[in-house]
Amino acid sequence: MSRKRVTQVFRKVWRWEASGRFSVRSCYRRLARDIQVEGWVGWTEMWNCRLPPKIKSFFWQLCSDCLPTTKNLRSRMVNCQEVCGLCGKDDESVLHLFVRCPVAIEGWKAIGWDVNGAAGGSFLHCLELIFQTKKKPELEKVVWGCWGLWEERNRRVWQNKTLNASQVMFSASCFVDGWLFAQQKDQAKVTALGAQVWRLPKPGWCKMNVDAVRDHTGSWFGWAVRNSSGDFVGGGIKSGRGSCFSLE
Asked: InterPro entries of this UniProt entry (predicted)?
């Protein structure tokens, strides 16, 4: 009786793809399935919010505890002071920075939310309470409010600049409003600049036109006054700290 010699060939396979080949998509799906975020399951509501992608990405990092707070940095053996970048007093944990910090508390009050009742437990527990009791517009406010606080924290740490709590929330709100305006699909609601025609005011009246512009260095606004004959009466320009939306 003859014996056949069987040759076995071993090769590496990726068990989570039918083809056996590795893919980033299958790796992500596997990791996402394994990761369990304790105490909060509001991912769907968060992704459906009408907010800029970078704010959603920030909020995902926040809920996953991936933000480079000083507490997280020290846990990764980074030599830094574990102090809050907003108040400069307590340890900078996620719960403190966005809920318990005096600056955060004042900021939330400025947009009509009292966080004292949600200050207990973990940050994800606070989110669970919020997403169970708030409607979508209020949820969006919470998300961009957290982003505004993080922006202010970085502004104080890296630029040594400071806004008060109300200005922090106002600036974040204006950023979101500007993004939403740019996303409008209905072009009929947006007047084309070329279709605008300046008209003389009524006899005995003057007309003032204003405009504003903003970039990463600051804001500027100007005005021009003309009489019923179309003659230039006066005008000016001024730079300011703030948002072009409010100036207009």
From this structure: RVT-Znf
